[in-house]
Write a structure and sequence with these properties.
By secondary structure, the protein is mainly β. The protein folds into two domains: 1-45; 47-373, TolB, C-terminal domain (Neuraminidase, 6 Propeller), CATH 2.120.10.30. The protein has helices spanning 3-18, 23-44; strands spanning 53-59, 65-70, 76-80, 85-89, 98-101, 109-113, 116-120, 125-129, 136-140, 151-155, 161-165, 181-185, 193-197, 205-207, 214-218, 231-236, 240-241, 247-248, 252-253, 272-274, 280-285, 299-303, 316-323, 326-334, 338-339, 342-343, 347-352, 358-362, 367-373. A five-stranded mixed sheet has the order 10-11-12-13-17, with no helix packed on it. Residues 9-20 have low confidence and may be disordered.
């Protein structure tokens, strides 16, 4: 071998060893894909859905993913609260998420209205003009902070913006009337009006597709034992008071406010009671046609799971049967994130996709699941 040939061979070997010929990088990518697939497979092993349905991992490595919304462009938008981001994913493929908004302060609520994307940060509501969503502006400033930090938002059929602000405490009388309440605004943030009070922490709002009523999930108080008080689904009307902090459930006085028991006489009992400490968060009415007809108009609610119950509960997605604009009962729909006391995920928010499948976020596992009916 002459000198030039020897140098060429050494260069070829160095290139091969460093992976610059592309084979090692491709191998690394393949191994990464296989690792993710194996992780997703393990995540699904304990999960169950009703017969005829299937559940799969749509996206993962999304730490702290919470609220999901289908945008006007048919894309799926996800709020990464811990990272202060809103990202966009294509429901038709398993691609990488694309950043839409960054640098937000504990974002949670997400809504689209008249070409704008609205985001509920813990201290304000901001909006971004579509379709690029590049420049934001504050529409609701100076929301109270501390305590329950999620700011859920939804637009009603009346075109108004509804904002849920949780309490600052487990049980107390608030100084700011916007706390433990749902507040209504015009889309530009003007005309602030308290709609309903006594809602300790309503981290899920949904609009009934027929009546137009705002439904709210309710995380009730702690420290009354494993089975009290029940969590709630409430249907809001202007001027309603749902009891907190004076009472819970069917107008049962809280022990700290027995001297205010008379205040409970005019409070509104829950439309539906759910197992105590289940922590109902996001919810959505099913209005598509990919699921069987019997599911049309029913409500799906994510139960995030208990933190202070001696025996854990929640950690699942439930179906609330709805008839005549009222909830009748609830039952497990997707479960298995809690097995033998071990938690493998915490459902946060369901959303109906453009094809009628149901997406579900899991902030503990950093995943988005997809549920479809296969028959």
């Amino acid at each position: 071998m002459n000198e030039q040939a020897r140098l060429n061979e050494q260069a070829r070997l160095r290139t091969h060893a460093s992976g610059r010929d592309g084979r090692l990088p491709r191998l690394a990518v393949l191994l990464g894909v296989l690792a993710v697939a194996a992780w997703s497979y393990r995540a699904l092993q304990t999960l169950s859905v009703p017969g005829g349905f299937e559940i799969s991992v749509f996206a993962d490595r999304l730490a702290g993913v919470r609220t999901l919304r289908t945008g006007p462009d048919g894309m799926l938008y996800a709020v990464l609260s811990q990272q202060g981001r809103v990202v966009r994913l294509d429901p038709s493929e398993r691609g990488e998420p694309v950043d839409v908004a960054r640098g937000l302060s504990r974002p949670y609520g997400l809504a689209f209205h008249d070409g704008w994307m609205y985001v509920g940060e813990t201290h304000q509501v901001v909006r971004f003009r579509g379709p690029s969503y590049e420049r934001g502006e504050v529409v609701v400033p100076r929301l109270p902070t501390g305590g329950h930090w999620t700011r859920e938002i939804v637009f009603g059929q009346d075109g108004m913006l509804y904002v849920s602000v949780g309490s600052s405490c487990n049980i107390c009388e608030e100084d700011d009337p916007r706390r433990a309440a749902v507040v209504r605004y015009r889309p530009d943030g003007s005309d602030e009006t308290i709609v309903a009070e006594g809602l300790r922490n309503s981290a899920g709002l949904a609009v009934h597709p027929e009546t137009g009523a705002i439904w709210a999930s309710q995380n009730e108080r702690d420290m009354l034992g494993d089975d009290l008080p029940p969590e709630e689904i409430n249907i809001l009307s202007d001027g309603d008071h749902f009891g907190w902090p004076y009472c819970y459930g069917g107008r049962v006085p809280n022990p700290e406010y027995r001297d205010r028991a008379n205040a409970c006489r005019t409070t509104v009992p829950p439309a539906l009671e759910i197992q105590a400490h289940s922590a109902p968060l996001g919810m959505v009415f099913y209005t598509a046609d990919q699921f069987p007809e019997e599911y049309r108009g029913d409500l799906f609610v994510a139960l995030h799971g208990s933190w202070n119950r001696s025996e854990r509960t929640g950690y699942k997605l439930v179906r609330v049967r709805v008839e005549g604009g009222r909830p009748l009962s609830y039952e497990d729909f997707a479960a298995g994130w809690l097995t033998a006391g071990r938690v493998s995920g915490r459902p946060v928010y369901p959303e109906v996709g453009p094809d009628g499948s149901l997406f579900l976020s899991d902030d503990d596992g950093g995943r988005i699941y997809r549920i479809r009916f296969r028959g």
